[in-house]
Batch of 3 targets.
Target 1
Amino acid sequence: VLQGLSHLHSLKPAIIHGGLNENNVLISSREVAKITDFGNSFLATPILPSAAKRPLLEYMPPEVMRRDRCNEKVDIFSLGHLTLYIMNQQKPHLILGPTFEEQGKLIARSEVERRANHLEKMARQLDGGNTHPLSAIVTNCLSDDKDLRPSCKNILRSDFFTNPFDGNIQNAVVHPTGLTLGQGEYGKVLEVRYKTKTYAAKKYHLYPTHSSSLTPVMRMIKMRHPNILPYYGMCKLATDGSKVLVMRRIQINLTISLQRSMKLPKKVEVLNDVANGLHFLHNQTPAIIHRNLTANNVLLDVNGMARISDFADSSIVASLIHGTEDYMSPEALEGKEHNDRMDTFAFGHLSVYVIIQHRPVHLECSEHEVGGKVILRTEVERRKYHLDEMKSKL
């Protein structure tokens, strides 16, 4: 829901839903929330929406009740109320006073205060009466002053949504379970435990120590997108104190999934997820180039949604990454200057592989520069014809 609202509010001009509640949040078969019912929506202008475009009474923010000027913070108030309802599935009971006008233009100040007290009580009761990390967020969302309510982007950047480590990610110590989840050219992936949960952690063979080298990594840790594997931060292994990049643990990658039964509509759905993830990475400022997109680093979560992984490698070991040769673009193979279009080439190659589940045979070339920067032009041409042949079979 936050991602959806954030998208609406980021448009120019921003679109305000104006009627967000549990009845117009739909859940897809993949358990993805979709905001609907934009009949109450209006463009972000500092005016009050018409009477026909006011949210449900129990979701109505104070400025609407008072007939004050409104902006996108109307939705933030409704979001706070929706969060309370989701967490303890209970709505506050409104006690309407005699000063409620027929046109719904005003609810008495005393009613606003009564409801504010009731909502604060509900916030304290979240999670069975314990202090819940969402309490501060909900309290701010339900602020009587709309200027004090956070934006969707600020909520998404909060520690609660960006990592599970209580904000102390750089000092966190994780304990390896002894299970190695995978191993590649640049490092190996371990299963680690932090508090009561298990995560995946990548330990690099060559790890940069200069702070400037880690700046892009820290930026990635804050990024959240449904088709990007969440990275939580750099932690220390309890065994030897070495640095590891901790991320969400998803066991199944696309290569394994394709070996099982996957029908064409599902394949197209997965490719759509990957395209959305790449679009998100390439639209960062500056753009993030994956450099090594393959079926092995596209993971499928329990809902079948594809998530791109290993994009952090592009920053941690960018000077070393050449990519998987079968997926590399000609300009990268020849050592020429390249940009995010090398990911587009890899996506085309991935699409061919996913659809027909056949990878072109890589023709080894004996003549190449040390370091793998160049494969002879003849090899590039041979592969081009081979890919064209594969495309014709689609």
Target 2
Amino acid sequence: ADLVIQMLETDYARILRAIYAFGRGASRYPLAAFRTPSG
């Protein structure tokens, strides 16, 4: 169960970072939200 929770938290944090990066640099870096390192 802990592993599932950890994976969910990781995905959630990645989504938040993607939204944050997209919101900040969408005008200059349209693909910035999709260039987050996996893992």
Target 3
Amino acid sequence: MSHRTEPTDPKSQQPTPLYLAPEESLAAGLVEGGESPAYECVVLRPQDLTATHGVEIRPEHLQLLADSYDPKVEEATLNFDHAWEGPAHGFAEKLWVKGQELWARFTRLSQEAVEAIRSGRWPRRSSEFVRSHPATGDWYYTGCALLGAQRPAIWGMGQGHLLSGSPVEVVDLGSPATDPAAADPKEDPPMPIQLDGEPEPVSAPEPETLAAPDDQVTKLQTELAAERARSRRLEARARAAADVATLGTRVTPAMLRAGLPALLEELAAAESPKTVTLAAGDGEPHEATVYDALLDVLRAAPEAGLLASEPLAGRAAEEAARLALDTRTPEERAICERHGISPERAVELRRKFPRAFANN
């Protein structure tokens, strides 16, 4: 939506600005006399700006902007440094695609715009567009700003020209970087948008707004802080697991079920560890972190031997087998060998049948 509207119209958000500039100097031709001058210039070209502006400009987008542009729907305006509150200094008569670039022709230029282009102090350009216009429902070109010292996002634009039927004067616009002496701008009549079939002005959707450099820095700082917190958490988890392993049997199953490893991890991951002052016996008080103090207490605990020995019945059977092997008579050994009875089986048979190997 145009940024110059009636005061009673709903105030629109700022459209997406993309800063364009030449790699070298930007030249322009100024016609003295004759019909009113027109300004033709490159306003956009394909480039992936997803990382910096969240948008990718593709060749089909340029053609869409050129095809959808209609001054009766909304006139793209020429301004200085995206001054949405000031007067328009020119209006886009048409847009077209030439090669891989989107061109615009601005007419009804203000005297301030002509003098600024001639002075060479506004050598760069910045495009404005929305990606969902209320009339077209798609990309729509809304304006172009002349920039002074502000750096562009897209470099390598071609030349811009002030045109008419008379000979032109070429002026180098690349070197100066200061604002021109501003004359008091004459306020143009407000230009509310009148859409086909709509008698009342239509409010524009919320346009794309580029994050300022400070916002980008803040976002990167937030991502860095999150990455550091994640790294600190992983280090704390590894440290807690290693310390629990070194405690051995001092850590009982009940302690594990109660969440001792998770508690140690939280204490180790704290960005500012809590401390306590401890005094052992007659010693001097000393300060230690809660994590280290808890580990000292656990290290001082006695080892809890786990019941991992074999069942008593199994030990008794082995002992009985050993004794039976030592006390068997030659006759008993002969019977066991003849019938393939193992010593353990012989013990079981003797326990069940006390006279199994007795001589009749």
